[in-house]
Amino acid sequence: MAARHLIIGGGTAGINAIRTIREEERERSDITLVSAERPYSRMVLPYYLDRSIAESHVFTATAAVLAGWGVKTHLHRRAAGLDVKRSVCALDDGTEIEYDDCVIATGSSAVRAPVPGAEGRGVHSFWTLEEARRVIGEIVAGGHVVMVGAGFISFTILNSILALGAKLTIVEIAPRILPRMIDGTGAELVENWLRKHGVAIRAGAKLTKIEDAKGRKRLRFASGGDLTCDVVIMATGIRTNLEWLKGSGVTVNRGVVVDEHLRSSVANVYAAGDVAEGPDLVSGEKAVHAIEPTAQEHGRVAGANMAGRDVRYRGSLLANIVEVCHLDVASFGAWDDPRAEAATGLRADRPAYRKLLWRGDRLTGAIILGPSSDIWTTNDVGMLKGLVQSGASLAAFKAHLGRNPFDLKPAFIASKTTERLLPETVLGRPSKAPDGTPVAV
Amino acid sequence: MSVASVTPTRVLKLTPEKCTGCLRCELACSYMQTGAFQPSKSVIRVSPFEGHTSYAPYTCTQCAEGWCMTACPVGAITINAAGAKDVIDDTCVGCKLCTIACPYGTMFYDPGTRKAFKCNLCGGAPACAEACPTAAITYEAVATTDWLGNFAAERTAHALLLETR
User: Fold this and answer.
1) d(Cα A236, Cα A110) in Å, to the nearest integer?
2) Gyration radius (Cα) of chain A, Å
3) A160-163 long-range contacts, Cβ below 8 Å, gap at least 24?
4) pTM
5) Contact A422 B64 (CB under 8 A)
6) For a 10 Å CB count at each end of chain B, is N or C smaller?
């Protein structure tokens, strides 16, 4: 009998697992996908919001693609429970699916600040396609949008809101913006840049209530100073979708704990993406990253192992990039490690900032910030990633980089980081193109 | 299925000792890629070493992993007939995930077009190699390697020594 693989969740991790199983398997297996939504890419929703792409552009594996891959689907269904003894997954409509192995890739959901009115009319999250659809109809030129939460998610849709001609105010409970992506120095540069571009920012503001106000919304704060607006977007964090695993016997900490094969505590149950707590490349500790690159790598490694390969995962590297009004901000690895030795550089004439974090002679984290017109005339964004990823000793260059953290390229090349990186692949073989075969140019 | 079908048959071989720093490759690259002579849009970039007494061109290795390609959430990066990882402009939304996935720093973003861009070997006739007058850049059927590492290590070591005096 053909092996029966069950993919629970149709996001980045799940779809990458399916594709990789089909790439790696020796005999054709049965693949079943359970997904609450049609598979789409969350990363591109901001471009749907500003109408630079059509909604059709967001879908990753359409019905035709899934049929081509020979995947049985249970769409618009959620997994409700896992019986690991019988290897059966129960769905929310009572259907039971038997599997030989499965991958839990149920992702995460947006959470709203627990204040009265947070669930009311005109208050939105921006995480799923359904939520994006609700927001897209409400933002109009000249309208006032308030975003609650100044984290990564807010910043990915900031340009879109401005492009639609709306006025934007960002409120954040923490004393500064982007608290989980850059340090205080970087945050201050971004804040000043945004203010110059007409975005109002209110940091250290505790939202207490959202009320209706003659067809508009009024936000009240502990420190006073009401805000009236047309649309409220709550980007106050996410939580992993784990509740359905309660009592299953699968070990869960902050996420489903997985080993270097992406296997959970149950041998034939894998987990991948936002829901998985797997090895972090820099620290070696287990961590939930909830970022797209980790979901993709997790999905591929889990898929390869489900297909019978023995692929060990080195671990995922925390990496984020966001651009606001043509200011690029990226951070890599352990950028907020308080025990690391840090070297920083700040340009006097423009908002350009670098931070390099060291453990001994190894670069373990980095922040890069600067105008897009500067950043992309250099190779530095990727080179920072490469230096952190490779873990190369930079003993000969550390002092120089301490004096000038902007002069990265000679150190990257002369440290022979390219030589270290060239043999590295996630699956131990060259990757295949998304459409499987070479195409004409 | 065979690996050979996705491995570039020819690669850009860089011989930094022959580079004079004339920057013709950057002009040719940007002209081929964008239709205008604008080195800031070139995907091959020449760096000075030893206080501008020697130079080396640097570009995408067309690595086996294809970090940019596997990172793309919409499948906008594929492998073209020359074996190069190539951005399909109509599919790219400009999310920049490829730029933080590529560990070589050879994936770029154009704020004007809102698209990612990279070396695609000009589809099999790389303009940089054609333009290079000293054969520092050649297009050959050899295995990709770290063409610049030793060259740069020697020259940088000297510069770092002077710095510490």
Assistant:
1) 7
2) 23
3) A160/A46, A160/A47, A160/A49, A160/A50, A161/A49, A161/A50, A162/A197, A162/A198, A162/A199, A162/A325, A163/A50
4) 0.95
5) yes
6) C
A12 within a domain of the structure (yes/no):
yes
What CATH number does residue B76 fall under?
3.30.70.20
According to DSSP, the β-strands at A269-271 and A200-203 are unpaired
**Does residue A437 surpass a pLDDT of 50?**
no
User: At A96, which helix (H) or strand (E)?
Assistant: strand A96-98
DSSP secondary structure letter of residue A177: S
Query: pLDDT tens digit string along A324-356?
Result: 999 999 999 999 999 999 999 999 999 999 999
Contacts of A385 in chain B (CB under 8 A): 100-103, 105
Question: Is-contact B43 B116, C-beta < 8 A?
Answer: no
CA of A321, closest CA in chain B: separation in Å? 7
Q: How far apart are the first and last CA of chain B?
A: 56
Contacts of A328 in chain B (CB under 8 A): 96, 109
Range of the domain at A157: 123-236
CB A100 within 8 Å of CB A3: yes
Alpha carbons A92 and A80: distance in angstroms, whole number: 5
**At A126, which helix (H) or strand (E)?**
none
pLDDT per residue over A254-301, tens digit each? 999 999 999 999 999 999 999 999 999 999 999 999 999 999 999 999
Same domain, A102 and A75: yes
Domain assignment present for residue A441? The answer is: no
Among A320, A328, A408, smallest CA distance to A375 is for A328
- Residues of chain B with Cβ-Cβ distance to A422 below 8 Å are 61, 63-64, 144-146
Q: Are A352 and A371 in contact (CB under 8 A)?
A: yes
ipTM metric: 0.95
Run of H or E residues at A296: helix A292-306
